[in-house]
């Protein structure tokens, strides 16, 4: 869901549409369906929550729209993990406020982490904001909107539901022909790393019963899905809150039993909960894809202690080595933070050495930024911004070379690809060499390798594209871009 931009032109278009409708006799409410526009920021968890909001609202007659100008309800689903997003969100709502001039019934809402953190304070600060809803209250969204409309009272619902009372939303079979889908298997995080806001905005861990996960995946497979990504902030601690009746490795094996499901992925894991059984699953479970995102955050034991990660560098490396021994085909990725309070140059050099030692296929790297309310926010943010930038650039330059080397290894190889649908030609950037080559190849289908790399493959007809979608095929790679591949069907 991308922002289409509420420019003055689009507001004028909205006014024009309204005038046209009035010209038709003014029966707008009887003729029009209600539309919801959701602007999603942040991680996959927020993308998933957006889908749950759409499902909850569908039962109240709301149809998703990709144009905010058509919306009767517009929600910004916020993320505050790294950015100082408040300003961004406030200015977005300022733009949306203008739409109310043409549609006084328009309801403006805020969801996600900022909503959870700020709650009622947002309503006090932003008079045009109608409702605030936290992640645990998504099921209440239709009644909150209704209450806003019927009683003309602004609404805020941000209470955490106690883990014993928490219920996950009922799954709804997708009708959009998707080949891949996310499945939340747990919510919240009990780790409380000192830099991280997530435990404050998502609450304590609650695992979905294994039977419900299996039922949900079966429902998705029946609707045509061939690959699922099991989601959780700390996904591999799955089951601990349910006395470990089914742990995460066992959950993967249970999901893998489902006929018709081809691929399983998961994210995000914590090194402490990376059990031998999980590592072994990469060798024994054919459906578990060979890509493991295992955040370490820093290569310095002292920094890790300050981050309260409860693991060291050595025990992390032991797990990496074990994985490489029993499943050498698995590509690894990680998250790294530079400039954590007290990080010295020596600490940073240890992170650089870690890169050379592990040789990640790819990684996410961030400059530390204090999140209000976290333990680390009480420490002096003593690495100057310019130095954080310098460290980040150095780290990224080394990783770019390692990633390029990893990608180059795909050239000439035959890989198994799960095809997802038409390729978006300009994703590599309209001017890039890769785009030009791809454009010259005409109609293309997009799929992914087991390592989750995008591959674009030329096809002759739209019928061939449709026939490939949702299927596995062998592809010979003959084009390597910065983060995607091209190839020919074998
Ligand atoms: N649950 C995951 C984990 O165990 O790492 C993901 C947590 S967070 C949503 C995603 C990443 O954002 C973290 O792994 C960390 O690298 C980064 N991050 C979180 N808080 C940050 C902060 N205050 N400053 C910079 N980066 C941060
Ligand atoms: Fe955040 Fe650490 Fe949990 S990074 S999501 S507190 S594992």
Classification by helices and strands: alpha/beta
Q: How much beta, percentage-wise?
A: 15-25%
Shape: globular
β-strand number: 19
The profile of the biggest β sheet is:
6 strands, parallel
What is the overall pLDDT average? 89
Q: Could you estimate the helical fraction of the residues in percent?
A: 25-40%
Radius of gyration: 24 Å
Catalogue the unreliable spans: 1-31
CATH topology of the largest domain: pyruvate-formate lyase- activating enzyme
CATH superfamily of the largest domain: tm_1862 like domain
- Which ions, cofactors or small ligands are bound in this entry? S-adenosylmethionine, FE3-S4 cluster
Strand order of the largest sheet: 2-1-3-4-5-6
CATH architecture label of the largest domain: Alpha-Beta Horseshoe
- What is the count of structural domains? 3
Q: Can you characterise this structure?
A:
By secondary structure, the chain is of the alpha/beta class. It has 3 domains: 150 residues, Rossmann fold (3-Layer(aba) Sandwich), CATH 3.40.50.12160; 229 residues, tm_1862 like domain (pyruvate-formate lyase- activating enzyme), CATH 3.80.30; 76 residues, no CATH class. Helices cover 37% and strands 20% of the residues. It contains 17 helices and 19 strands. A hairpin with a 3-residue loop joins strand 18 and strand 19. Helix 10 packs parallel to helix 11 and helix 14 packs parallel to helix 15. It is globular and about 65 Å long. It binds S-adenosylmethionine and FE3-S4 cluster. The site of FE3-S4 cluster has 10 residues, from helix 8.
């Amino acid at each position: 869901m991308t922002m289409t931009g509420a420019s003055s032109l689009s507001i004028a278009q909205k006014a024009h549409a309204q005038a046209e409708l009035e010209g038709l006799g003014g029966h707008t409410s009887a003729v029009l369906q209600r539309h919801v526009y959701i602007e999603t920021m942040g991680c996959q968890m927020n993308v998933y929550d957006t889908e749950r909001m759409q499902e909850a609202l569908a039962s109240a007659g709301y149809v998703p729209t990709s144009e905010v100008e058509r919306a009767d309800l517009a929600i910004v689903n916020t993320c505050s993990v790294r950015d100082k997003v408040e300003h961004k969100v406030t200015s977005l709502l300022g733009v949306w406020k203008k739409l109310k001039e043409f549609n006084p019934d328009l309801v403006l809402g805020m969801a996600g982490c900022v909503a959870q953190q700020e709650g009622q304070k947002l309503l006090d600060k932003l008079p045009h904001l109608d409702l605030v809803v936290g992640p645990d209250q998504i099921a209440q969204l239709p009644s909150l909107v209704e209450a806003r409309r019927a009683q003309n009272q602004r609404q805020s619902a941000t209470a955490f539901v106690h883990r014993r009372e928490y219920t996950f939303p009922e799954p709804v079979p997708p009708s959009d022909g998707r080949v891949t889908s996310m499945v939340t298997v747990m919510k919240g995080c009990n780790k409380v790393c000192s830099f991280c806001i997530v435990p404050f905005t998502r609450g304590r861990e609650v695992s979905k019963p294994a039977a419900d996960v299996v039922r949900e995946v079966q429902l998705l497979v029946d609707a045509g899905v061939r690959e699922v990504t099991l989601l959780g902030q700390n996904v591999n601690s799955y089951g601990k809150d349910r006395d470990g009746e089914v742990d995460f490795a066992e959950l993967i094996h249970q999901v893998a039993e489902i006929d018709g499901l081809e691929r399983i992925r998961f994210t995000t894991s914590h090194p402490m909960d990376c059990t031998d059984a999980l590592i072994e699953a990469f060798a024994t479970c054919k459906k578990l894809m060979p890509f493991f995102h295992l955040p370490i955050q820093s290569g310095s034991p002292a920094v890790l202690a300050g981050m309260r990660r409860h693991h060291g560098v050595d025990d992390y490396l032991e797990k990496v080595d074990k994985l490489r021994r029993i499943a050498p085909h698995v590509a690894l990725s990680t998250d790294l933070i530079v400039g954590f309070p007290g990080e010295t140059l020596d600490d940073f050099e240890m992170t650089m050495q870690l890169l050379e030692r592990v040789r990640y296929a790819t990684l996410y790297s961030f400059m530390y930024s204090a999140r209000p309310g976290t333990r680390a926010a009480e420490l002096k943010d003593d690495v100057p911004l310019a130095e954080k930038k310098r460290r980040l650039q150095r780290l990224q330059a080394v990783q770019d070379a390692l990633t390029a080397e990893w990608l180059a290894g795909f050239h000439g190889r035959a890989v198994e690809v799960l095809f997802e649908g038409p390729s978006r030609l300009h994703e590599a950037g309209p001017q890039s060499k890769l785009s030009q080559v791809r454009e010259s190849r005409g109609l293309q289908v997009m799929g992914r390798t087991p390592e989750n790399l995008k591959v674009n493959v030329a096809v002759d007809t739209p019928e061939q594209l449709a026939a490939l979608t949702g299927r596995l095929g062998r592809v010979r790679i003959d084009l390597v871009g910065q983060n995607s591949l091209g190839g020919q069907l074998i």
